């Protein structure tokens, strides 16, 4: 019996499907899975799910200012990191729609998810050549737990675009490394091959420029995807180093500078280093014990971040993925490394992928996943806020094809055959374990998706109550209010700045205003109102003020909210 995992003969190096070929059953099923994933998320958006918050509203306000031409922010308001790409994508939607809305803000993120799904499917086929495995990957990505759909749909800064960019970078790297000019000299082309090959000079330069631009853009948008940029970039350096010394390298560098231009220009003009702000956001200025960090980073984090947990929590049985993930990383890494060490078979036919390139990309995806988990685990965020901070692991979905491919291979073919050509007992048992692991992965993700869908009616009802709050303030003629952090910018965005809010804490002291102009406007108003969620600490403080000074405030109550109007 062989020790390593046997690669499927239809995997790396297999020809592309014949143009015009019928998709067949697996093609139709894959298309249905794509439609199901996009349709499920569109249904969520139409029901105001997942629930929005003031951070997302802050991005919406930036989009509103861009659409009106009132400002062109480089960073998320109130901080010096996390680029505002989502605001620039939503601004045209607001301009066409005639105003801001939560649906308009999220339509670009839905498009980014659809792009990620298609790119990952294409990447899976390029790395494995197995359409049924591509269907499995698409089906998993079509599911969506609470944490997953929040990462993919909420325009809170960076998360929706990182996965699409990471998959695009890997796919571009496959084509660039496979079609590198040094693999085949010009006189080895047969008639008609050049036009179809990825090595055509014009297309190659366009791919190099696209790769560099995406890498630079992600440097500005969010550094969480940088492990994937670095690992995939190392593959390009390893396979295309000679090409990078020429025009391709110069073009890649220029495109990367263009993508990162907002970050570079802002740093040059202000003298500020965005890396310091990123480290602070990751908990560098806080302290958490190593036991909490390890539990948050290695136990809770993978299960939450990859979509296997119920909304806001992980049941004990849902944590099984945290035990399996290290084994998958080791298995996938060893299999990719063994394939990479296999002697290069030489030139490949047009439309096929070099086995060594496939192995290198798979190994890069595994190493990037390890680096992502490691960086998150050593940060204090993993120990201080493990449930909410698990969003920092959202990029792990990019590595899904590489992680599951060895398990899929074992499930379909076993570890190998004995000298008689038959599968042994050990191989059959291992194959059964692999099948159970894949079924458990699908089943756990499906259960988490079902639990997330159950919260939609409550989310829609909460959004309706917030809409009633905005309507009531307009009817009362209230223009300026003071409220808590998680109320203020959401209220200002929902009213399209017809109601302007300044943030206060639970002791009525000024809080953290991400957009200082709002505070200046509220402070200059004659008699701002107060708004607080019913039952909140802020509402209790304002109720106590009413009791101490009767008649100082008029109280207007609606379901879920309390409005305090100064006399």
Condensed summary:
By secondary structure, the protein is mainly alpha-helical.
Structure description:
The protein contains 23 helices and five strands. It has helices spanning 24-46, 54-68, 85-97, 102-128, 131-142, 146-153, 159-178, 201-221, 226-244, 247-259, 261-270, 274-281, 290-305, 320-341, 355-378, 381-384, 386-389, 400-413, 425-454, 456-476, 485-494, 516-523, 537-548, and strands at 480-483, 500-503, 529-533, 553-558, 561-566. The protein is globular, with a radius of gyration of 26 Å. Helix 21 links the parallel strand 1 (480-483) and strand 2 (500-503). Helix 8 (201-221) packs parallel to helix 10 (247-259) and helix 14 (320-341) runs antiparallel to helix 15. It is mainly α.
Average residue pLDDT: 86
Shape: globular
Structural class: mainly alpha
| Count of discrete alpha- or pi-helical segments spanning 4 or more residues | 23
Largest sheet: 5 strands, mixed
Task: List the SSEs and their pairings.
Blueprint: H1 24-46, H2 54-68, H3 85-97, H4 102-128, H5 131-142, H6 146-153, H7 159-178, H8 201-221, H9 226-244, H10 247-259, H11 261-270, H12 274-281, H13 290-305, H14 320-341, H15 355-378, H16 381-384, H17 386-389, H18 400-413, H19 425-454, H20 456-476, E1 480-483, H21 485-494, E2 500-503, H22 516-523, E3 529-533, H23 537-548, E4 553-558, E5 561-566
Parallel strand pairs: 1-2, 1-3
Antiparallel strand pairs: 3-5, 4-5
């Amino acid at each position: 019996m062989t020790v390593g995992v046997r690669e499927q003969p239809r995997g790396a190096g297999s020809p592309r499907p014949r143009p015009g070929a019928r998709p067949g059953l697996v093609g139709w099923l894959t298309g249905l899975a794509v439609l199901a994933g996009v349709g499920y998320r569109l249904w969520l958006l139409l029901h105001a799910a997942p629930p929005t918050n003031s951070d997302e509203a802050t991005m919406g306000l930036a989009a509103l200012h861009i659409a009106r031409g009132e400002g062109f922010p480089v960073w998320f308001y109130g901080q010096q990191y996390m680029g505002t790409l989502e605001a620039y994508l939503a601004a045209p939607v607001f301009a066409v729609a005639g105003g801001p809305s939560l649906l308009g803000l999220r339509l670009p993120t839905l498009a980014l998810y659809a792009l990620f799904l298609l790119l990952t499917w294409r990447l899976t086929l390029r790395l494995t050549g197995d359409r049924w495995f591509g269907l499995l990957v698409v089906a998993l990505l079509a599911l969506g737990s609470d944490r997953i759909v929040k990462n993919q749909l909420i325009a809170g800064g960076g998360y929706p675009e990182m996965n699409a960019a990471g998959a695009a970078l890997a796919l571009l790297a496959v084509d660039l490394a496979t079609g590198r000019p040094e693999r085949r000299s010009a006189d080895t082309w047969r008639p008609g091959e050049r036009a179809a090959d990825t090595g055509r000079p014009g297309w190659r330069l366009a791919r190099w420029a696209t790769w560099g631009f995406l890498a630079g853009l992600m440097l500005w948008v969010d550094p969480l995807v940088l492990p994937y940029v670095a690992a995939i970039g190392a593959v390009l350096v390893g396979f295309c180093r000679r090409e990078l010394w020429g025009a391709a390298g110069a073009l890649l560098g220029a495109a990367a500078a263009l993508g990162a231009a907002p970050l570079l220009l802002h740093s040059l003009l202000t003298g500020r280093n965005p890396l310091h702000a990123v480290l602070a956001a990751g908990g560098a200025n806080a302290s958490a014990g190593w036991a909490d960090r390890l539990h948050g980073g290695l136990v809770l984090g993978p299960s939450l971040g990859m979509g296997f947990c119920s909304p806001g929590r992980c049941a004990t049985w849902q944590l099984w993925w945290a035990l399996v993930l290290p084994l998958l990383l080791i298995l996938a890494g060893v299999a990719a490394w063994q394939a990479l060490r296999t002697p290069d078979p030489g030139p490949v036919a047009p439309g096929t992928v070099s086995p060594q390139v496939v192995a290198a990309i798979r190994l890069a995806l595994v190493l990037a996943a390890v680096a992502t988990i490691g960086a998150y685990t050593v940060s204090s965020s993993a120990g201080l806020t493990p449930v909410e901070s698990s969003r920092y692991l959202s990029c792990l979905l990019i590595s899904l094809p590489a992680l599951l491919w060895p398990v899929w291979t074992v499930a379909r073919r076993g570890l190998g055959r004995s000298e008689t050509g038959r599968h042994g007992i050990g191989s059959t048992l291992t194959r059964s374990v692999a099948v159970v692991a894949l079924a458990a992965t699908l089943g756990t993700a499906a259960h988490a998706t079902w639990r997330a869908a159950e919260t939609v009616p409550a989310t829609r009802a909460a959004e309706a109550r917030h809409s009633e709050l905005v309507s009531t303030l307009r009817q009362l003629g209230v223009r300026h209010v003071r409220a808590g952090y998680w109320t203020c910018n959401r209220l200002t965005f929902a009213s399209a700045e017809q109601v302007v809010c300044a943030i206060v804490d639970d002791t009525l002291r000024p809080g953290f205003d991400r957009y200082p102009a709002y505070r200046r406007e509220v402070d200059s108003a004659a008699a701002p109102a107060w708004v607080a969620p019913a039952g909140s600490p802020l509402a209790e403080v304002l109720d106590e003020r009413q009791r101490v000074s009767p008649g100082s405030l008029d109280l207007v109550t609606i379901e879920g909210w309390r409005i305090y109007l100064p006399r």
